[in-house]
Amino acid sequence: MTLLRVEDLDCRYGLLQAVRGVSLDVAQGETVALIGANGAGKTTLLRALAGAHRPHAGRVVFDGADVTRLRPHTRVARGIALVPEGRRLFPGLTVEENLRVAATRRRGRWGVESVLDLFPMLQARRRALAATLSGGEQQAVAIGRALMSNPRLLLLDEVSLGLAPVVVDAVYRSLEGIIEEGATVVLVEQDLTRALQVAGRVVCLLEGRVVLEGAAASLDRERVVSAYFGLKRSA
Q1: What is the pLDDT of residues 91-140, one digit of tens each?
Q2: Integer Cα distance of 126 and 134 in angstroms
């Protein structure tokens, strides 16, 4: 079943076109990694899916309904949640308050206690202010905050950015648990190794366009690297 369909999407910042005619489908329960160098359009595409950036042209269809013009909070109510680059927590609220502020009426698996179980690093920090957390702890809260809406589609933007490798390992272990439970995930990740390990399918963007797409297990790594950097492969 196709949960998300993107049709010929164009996104602009004034005269700058960041996303150019992107089309892709995401099946329910699938994990898709969006990869590409800086400036490829990955974050803009994710923001357009979440409703934080209005596209210039094209459509976003979620669960059979056109949501292209819907505001972000309406998309959250329908089951789309974004973990933004940079986490964007409320620094003056505690861990638990940051989680509770994102709770919706959607019923499902996730609540404060289940999120804390998923991220053991947060158990002892639930009453700590977000401003006092480490980068890894903040990323865990940001993911947990998105889960509090019990989303059908989880959009993750650069979850490993700026984190130490050991912290990235811990975050990805928790992410694998989310995926194993059947979550539908679109993941933006610059770390090719991480992306290929966790995703079932990879979509590579270059200058706002899809230049490579395929099952992660079957893609040749050299081909992926060439597409990532826009290199021409030798014969």
Answers
A1: 999 999 999 999 987 888 899 999 999 999 999 999 999 999 999 999 99
A2: 13
Q: Show the tokens assigned to 216.
A: 């992660």
User: What's the pTM?
Assistant: 0.91
Give tens-digit pLDDT for 179-197: 888 899 999 987 888 888 8
In eight-state DSSP terms, residue 73 is H
Query: Which two tokens mark 74?
Result: 């309406």
User: Which among 185, 125, 91 has a CA at the least distance from the CA of 172?
Assistant: 185
CA distance 136 to 142: 10
186 in Cβ contact with 155 (< 8 Å): yes
**Rounded CA gap, 16 and 43, in Å?**
15
> Cβ distance 28 to 3 under 8 Å?
yes
- Written as six digits, the tokens of 175 are 């992410």
What is the rounded distance in angstroms from the CA atom of residue 191 to the CA atom of residue 193?
A: 6
Beta strands 153-157; 201-206: pairing state: unpaired
Pure H helices in the chain: 42-50, 72-78, 95-100, 112-118, 135-147, 165-180, 192-198, 221-229
